[in-house]
C-alpha cells in the first residue's frame, strides 16, 4: 500500500508569493516562511501530488466513471496533453483564470491537473449556476477560457449554450472547450476537449511543460462562495494551503490507497474538491465519478465500485435513508462518511453508524478554509451532536470571539468563529470591502458563523450570525429551533427565519414542508408541541408558511436568502 505520507519531501527553505494578480491578497512572506519551516506547507502543486502517486503506482486506477477508467499514469499523461495544448495553442499563461462548468467526470480531473501544470487557475462555476453567475464570474476573473460539458454528459441542461450565449460579451475570453462525443454538436468557435487533449501537440510539443515553474505559494484554484447571499465571491486557494488540507483530510478520514472515494456533491464545490478528491489523490486512492447526483445514482455507484468514502450533504443522507428501494442496494462497502455544509440531523448519524458500521465525520466546512470535524473513531454521541475538532489542531488557529471581535468568549459560550493558519484563505478576490469587514490587521478571518467549544473540547455549531434571530433582545439560533420543530409528526423539513418586525426587530417564522398526507400546520399546533418540549415562548414560531418544496442553493442547501425575500414580499403585499 502506498500512501503519500511515506514520501520524503523536498522542503525548500522558503516560498514567496510571486503573483501580480490585481485584487488578490497573498499570504504575507513571514507566514509563508513559517508554514514551510514548520513542515505544514510541502511546496507541492496539485500536479506534483498526482505525479508522485503515478511514479509509485502508475497502473493503479485513478478515476473510474460511467464512460472511462484511467490509471494514475494515464491521468498524468492526459493532463499533460491538455496542458500542452492550453499553453501552446490557447496561449494560456501562469495566473490566467479559466472557468470550469463541468460535471463530476474524469475530464474534470484531466482539466484540473492540466491547469496546475501551467499555473493557470481554474474557477469553479457549478453546474447549477446560471447566466447571472456565469456573467458575474467571467467579469470578476477576466477568464481567458471556459470548459463545459456537451453531448457526452446530458444532465438536463445545456451548459455549452449557456456559455456560448454570453461569451461574445467578454473580450478576454478567447477559447471555449466542450466535452462532446459528436463534434457536429460544437457551436462555432468551440474546440473539442478530447481533440485538445489528444491532439498532435501532445506528441510533438514545442512547449516543455517541465520547464514551467509553478509557484506553490500562488493561487491554484478559485472556489466560489455559497449562493446563500447574492452573487458568489471568489475564494483563491494556493497550492500550498489547499494541499495542506488534502493531507490532513486524508489523515483525519483514514482514507487508504485501496479505497474508492466518490464525490457526492458537485466536484467543483470545496466539499468534494478538497475533502474527497484532494484527500483521495493525496492517499493515492481511486476516485469514482457519477455526473448524476440523485440518491439512486449514488447508491448504484457505491454498489458498482465498492465506494468506501464520500462527503454527502445532510439532505442526501436523509434521501438515502428514506429511499423506498434502499434495501435493494448493497452499501456495505462504506467505510467513512463525512457530512456537513449544514447542520446534520443527529438521527441520521445514528442510523448510518448503526446500519453500516461506518466512521462518521460530522464536519463544519467552508470553502474559505475552516474544516472542523469529528473523527471516525469518536463516540457516536460526539459524531451526532458536535463537529469535533479542527483537522490540523496544532496548526489551525481557531478562536470563538464575542461581538467586539476582540475578546474570546469563555469555553462553553457561543460566539463567532475566527480563524488563521496554513489552511485558510487570505481574502476574497477583488472584494476589498468584504475583506476589510471580515479580516483584521493580524490576518484573522471572521467567519460570521456562531460556534461554541464545549466542555469536552469539541465544537458545536449554532448557525450563521445572520441565522440568529433577535426577537426583542432575545437571541434565537435558527438551526437549534429547527431540530425541535422537525420532531413534529407533520413536519418533513423546516427552515426558520427572522421576520422583520417594527416593534420587536424580528419575530420567528417557519417555512415547512409537510409529511405526505397532511396539508396544514397551525401556529397554535406548533406552539403547544414546542410547549410540551419545554421550548421558551419567545422561540415559538409566530408565522408558519407551508410550502411544497423549500428553495435550494446550487449544492442543495436550503436557501434562506430566498425565504427572507419571500417573506418581505408577502409583508409588503399584506
Ligand atoms: P460554503 O460556502 O458552501 O462552503 O458553505 C459554508 C457555510 O456552510 C458555513 O459558513 C456555514 O454557515 C455552513 N456550514 C458548514 N458546515 C456546517 C455544519 N456542520 N453545520 C451548520 N452549518 C454549516
From TrEMBL:
Classification via SUPFAM superfamilies = Acetyl-CoA synthetase-like
Q: Where is the AMP-binding enzyme C-terminal domain?
A: 481-557
Protein name in UniProt: (2,3-dihydroxybenzoyl)adenylate synthase
Coiled-coil region(s):
none
Which keywords does UniProt give here?
Ligase
The UniProt entry, under PROSITE patterns, shows:
AMP_BINDING
Q: Which PANTHER family match?
A: ACYL-COA SYNTHETASE, MEDIUM-CHAIN ACYL-COA LIGASE ACSF2, MITOCHONDRIAL
InterPro entries recorded: AMP-bd_C, AMP-bd_C_sf, AMP-binding_CS, AMP-dep_synth/lig_dom, ANL_N_sf
The UniProt entry's sequence similarity note says: Belongs to the ATP-dependent AMP-binding enzyme family.
Superkingdom classification of source: Archaea
Q: Name one GO molecular function term.
A: medium-chain fatty acid-CoA ligase activity
What processes does the entry annotate via GO biological process terms?
fatty acid metabolic process
The AMP-dependent synthetase/ligase domain, residue ranges: 51-429
